[in-house]
What we know:
Blueprint lengths: L7 H4 L3 H9 L4 H13 L3 E2 H8 L5 H10 L3 E6 L2 E6 L2 H10 L2 H18 L4 H10 L3 H17 L3 H13 L1
Antiparallel strand pairs: 1-3, 2-3
Helix pairs in contact: 2-6, 3-4, 3-5, 3-6, 3-7, 4-7, 7-8, 8-9, 9-10
Amino acid sequence: AKLDGPGPELRALSIEELVTRSTSLVSPEARAILNVLAVAGRPLATQTALRAAGVQRDGSAHLHALKSVRLIRTREVSGERRLEVYHDRVREGVHAALTPQEREVVYDRLLRELEVSGNLDADWLHTLALGAGQRVPALRYGLIAAERASGALAFERAAELYQTCLQL
């Protein structure tokens, strides 16, 4: 039999429907990991992703399940193996499928995990704090990020960050 690509029922699916069908094939713990990676929006160390997702057991099995349905992948960043959502469209679909309350919880858990791990990316921490609805940390990290951006001659970004901080 000749394979001409996906059947009409698969071609008609939106990315959101494909994400929903794919995530229905994995455990709640695997979905929690996927949610963390989607909210992060960048590659994460495996242990950071697992801790932020609250996964304490069988992490490798959950990661394997996500990789087998092509929702996440591993890649090397600065000599370290990191996890990321397989494609931006998948990340956007997962992010969009979260309720505002679920999204806020994931932002908060990831923010707390990165703070504990000593992450120094103030711009990213600012974004996560905003998503978590944490005004005080958002202001603190926003001011640090704005100062760094200004020092790096990234004046447009510095102005955006200062404007957000003024609103906070």
